[in-house]
Design a protein that fits this description.
79% helix; single chain; mainly alpha
Length: 446
């Protein structure tokens, strides 16, 4: 009997130890999983900061702006003068602060001006409604709210208003509705409108101060860099085509995995960011090399031409990959080599021309009136069209001719990009590199 009891106790002890071991294993697994999640999230944050360190700067500036505006709560005289309206200053900082100077200026000025105009209209509507007596006042106020709300909402469908003043119209509707409706119950309506506008103006001023004077991030510079980057990507694509597909030692093996065949895709997807930066850049004051009334619209035209060129490149990639997969027999090897050499000339010279245009925009110098690379590419495209337009032998190598035809279309589009870049240089008054060199030489001689 005693032996049986001891056996039972031993079984219970072994069971408890197994249970605790299982719990310990699960706890260790949960801790490991949690640590992996934390370290993974920290690594992701570090990668985001490393990709663009300005994001860290912007976050710190938002924190600084909120700290400055919160001082209103801590200083008793300021809080007593504005009372509950002080919260609008904090809200303004939260909704107005943007990544770029242009974005903050756009939202800040829209918010301030919309609040001012809506406040004046709401006070005016209240004074007119009071003339109708106690019974007619709410009816007339309702009519005013209906008319102004309908008109302001419809104005948002106007493209020019939608592009630059959409946020301002929203704030106008909000302010007019709040002030106009509350005027029926609040006696000091003018004081209410004044407090709201003053606190919003303080919030906007703090936002502009931290955005413009503390490590400013300019939308114009980002747009400028985006344009030059797109030209470089198009040039990289054509350089790869000229060397990897049409060069003397070209190899079509593993063509789908080549990195240069993918670079044009980011150009195709750049329209939204380009339009946003262009809209914000128009709000920014002159800074750096960018003068007052800089031709920002020209960057959009240039971006449109770059995307058209990238679309042709997408068709060219499909054609080249299908050509490689189909493995057509070369009925006329000499003609194929001739077309291949023409394609290589068009690709490489067009790439050099695009690199030159990118350098022109990046350094803001006028392009050379004689562009030998563009002339060579254009001549190669023209010779191809003239020589093979009526050649019967061309039908035997039609698969290569399609590639060459697409490349000749890309050359024509690059000509348009060159013309658009020249217009940008003229409108933005890019400096003449020859004059700059002359000035440097004269200063050295002195």
């Amino acid at each position: 009997m005693e032996f049986q009891t001891e056996g039972n106790n031993g079984g219970v002890g072994e069971g408890n130890s197994g249970f605790f071991a299982d719990c310990r294993e699960r706890l260790c697994s949960a801790v490991d999983s949690l640590s992996c999640t934390v370290f993974g999230f920290a690594g992701k944050l570090a990668q985001i900061a490393q990709d663009d360190p300005r994001r860290v700067v912007h976050s710190l500036k938002v924190g600084l702006a909120l700290t400055l505006v919160s001082v209103i709560y801590y200083i008793t005289p300021l809080f007593n003068s504005w009372g509950g309206s002080t919260v609008w200053a904090v809200i303004t900082v939260v909704v107005v602060m943007e990544f770029t100077v242009g974005g903050t200026l756009s939202r800040g000025l829209n918010r301030a001006l919309a609040t001012l105009v809506a406040g004046f209209l709401a006070v005016g509507a209240h004074m007119v409604a009071q003339l109708c007596g106690e019974k007619g006042e709410p009816i007339l106020l309702g009519v005013f709210v209906f008319l102004v709300g309908s008109a302001a909402t419809f104005s948002r469908y106007i493209p020019e208003v939608k592009a630059r003043y959409d946020y301002g119209v929203t704030i106008f509707l909000l302010t007019f509705s709040l002030v106009g409706v509350s005027s029926y119950r609040v006696e000091e309506i003018i004081e209410l409108a004044h407090e709201r506008f003053t606190t919003i103006a303080v919030g906007v001023a703090i936002c502009l101060f931290t955005t413009v004077f503390i490590f400013p991030i300019w939308a114009g510079e980002d747009l400028h860099k985006l344009t030059t980057g797109n030209l470089d990507k198009l040039a990289e694509f054509l350089e790869g085509m000229g060397s990897e597909c049409f060069g003397e030692n070209s190899s079509w093996e593993n063509l789908e995995d080549k990195a240069f065949l993918q670079v044009y895709k980011s150009v195709l997807n750049s329209k939204a960011r380009e339009d946003s930066l262009c809209t914000f850049a128009k709000w920014e004051p002159m800074h750096g090399k960018f003068r007052f009334r800089h031709p920002w619209n020209q960057y959009q035209k240039l971006g449109t031409l770059c995307r058209q060129c990238a679309s042709s490149m997408e068709a060219l990639v499909s054609c080249v990959i299908n050509l490689k997969m189909s493995q057509y027999p070369e009925a006329n090897p000499e003609l194929c080599l001739k077309i291949g050499a023409t394609c290589a000339a068009m690709s490489l010279n067009s790439a050099k021309a695009l690199r030159g245009l990118s350098l022109t925009i990046r350094t803001m110098t006028t392009p050379s009136p004689i562009n030998n690379d563009m002339s060579t590419a254009t001549k190669a495209a023209s010779d191809f069209r003239a020589e093979f337009s009526e050649d019967v032998a061309l039908l035997q190598v039609m698969h290569m001719a399609i590639v060459a035809s697409l490349l000749s279309e890309i050359v024509i589009q690059i000509e348009r990009i060159t013309e658009s870049t020249n217009n940008l240089a003229r409108l933005a008054r890019f400096k003449n590199p020859e004059r700059s060199r002359s000035a440097v030489v004269i200063s050295i001689e002195d």
